[in-house]
Design the sequence.
């Protein structure tokens, strides 16, 4: 594979158990990924479109096998399995996605501190490298698994499976911090019960239209760092209007994970998903 | 980029059907509003296919356009992007096509 652009699959995916009572050990997963597509819909293909006519010029000595198979079917199946597994254990799983630096980990630290007394809270952290985020979550007091994807840009259902098997949650909530990326995680179903995309006011109000897929597939949009609004040029009304254009059903929460604004509504949303 | 994961998934799925046989062509359906870049996919496919029976395979990609039906006025129209807005002003749209990501068929040599 190409070392220049970093798309090497020899780095493999590693899963690190950072729970306080677990020895820190690394698993190497050298096998090929299975991936899933969260946006699969059954369509009646209402359009006509031109193809090359396969039968007319089928070269001699060749055979065409019809597959009609969704590319990400394997990930979809594993995600569906994860979803059923979580439901059977009464666990609500939430997939948090954002650009790097929007505030996912800070929001999770606070959520762990504020909710852990009331219900079981576990965290699955995803980053290319390091256990920085998992260490912060452990310090906040929740059982946490760190997935390092190496060169990977998103978590997938197989990685989720590995983390769930290690965490073995019962009841309560599993919060998944996806790899910082406003593009790729949108396509990969993990088996989560809900998706959250976090945007911060320093990123520009035009992002929902520029990155529509991740906003379109999320249940909640968290607008973070609202304490900085007096210092940045961010039109909140335009932002909310544009979110509604790509996702009319998404709830929008305005928060400051550092200062505490809006976090009661965030906790209430999490609690409402549980039981 | 996620197109690499998608290319790898295509190759895995094809190899499960073709085994050792040389693959001449893979036909994919990638909808215009699926979130997948066909150019990136071609690039990644070439890399991912390098040491497999798909190394000489031609990638034929059909790209269905996005279409939606408005739940309010019943109008059906082309959806150029993911902005769900009908000319009548409603955002109650059902996406009919454009989000496909499918392997249609594989052509193998003898």
Sequence:
């Amino acid at each position: 594979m190409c070392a220049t652009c970093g798309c090497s699959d020899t780095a493999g995916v590693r899963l690190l158990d950072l729970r306080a009572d677990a020895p820190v050990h690394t698993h190497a997963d050298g096998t090929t990924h299975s991936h899933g597509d969260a946006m699969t819909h059954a369509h009646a293909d209402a359009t006509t479109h031109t193809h090359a006519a396969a039968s007319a010029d089928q070269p001699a000595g060749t055979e065409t096998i019809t597959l009609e198979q969704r590319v990400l079917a394997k990930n979809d199946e594993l995600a569906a399995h994860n979803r059923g597994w979580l439901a059977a254990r009464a666990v609500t799983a939430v997939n948090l996605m954002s650009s790097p630096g929007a505030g996912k980990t800070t929001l999770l630290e606070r959520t762990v501190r504020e909710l852990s007394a009331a219900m079981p809270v576990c965290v699955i952290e995803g980053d290319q490298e390091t256990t920085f985020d998992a260490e912060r979550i452990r310090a906040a007091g929740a059982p946490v698994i760190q997935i390092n994807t190496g060169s990977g840009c998103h978590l997938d259902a197989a990685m989720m499976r590995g983390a769930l098997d290690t965490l073995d949650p019962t009841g309560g909530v599993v919060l998944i911090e996806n790899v910082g990326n406003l593009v790729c995680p949108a396509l990969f179903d993990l088996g989560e019960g809900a998706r959250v995309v976090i945007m911060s006011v320093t990123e520009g109000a035009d992002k929902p239209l520029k990155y529509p897929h991740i906003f379109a597939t999320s249940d909640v949009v968290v607008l973070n760092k609202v304490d900085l609004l007096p210092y940045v040029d961010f039109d909140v009304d335009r932002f909310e209007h544009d979110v509604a254009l790509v996702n009319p059903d998404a709830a929008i929460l305005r928060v400051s994970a550092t200062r505490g604004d809006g976090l009661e509504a965030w906790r209430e949303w999490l609690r409402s998903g549980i039981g | 980029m996620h197109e690499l994961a998608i290319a790898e998934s295509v190759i895995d799925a094809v190899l499960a059907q073709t085994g050792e046989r040389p693959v001449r062509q893979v036909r994919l359906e990638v909808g215009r509003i699926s979130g997948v870049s066909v150019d990136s996919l071609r690039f990644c496919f070439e890399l991912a296919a390098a040491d497999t029976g798909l190394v000489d395979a031609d990638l034929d990609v059909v790209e269905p356009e996005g279409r939606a039906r408005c739940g309010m006025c019943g109008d059906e129209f082309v959806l150029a992007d993911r902005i769900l807005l009908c000319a009548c002003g409603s955002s109650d749209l059902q996406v009919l096509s454009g989000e496909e990501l499918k392997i249609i068929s594989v052509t193998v040599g003898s």
Observations:
- The mean pLDDT of chain B is 92.
- Helices of chain B lie at 2-18, 38-49.
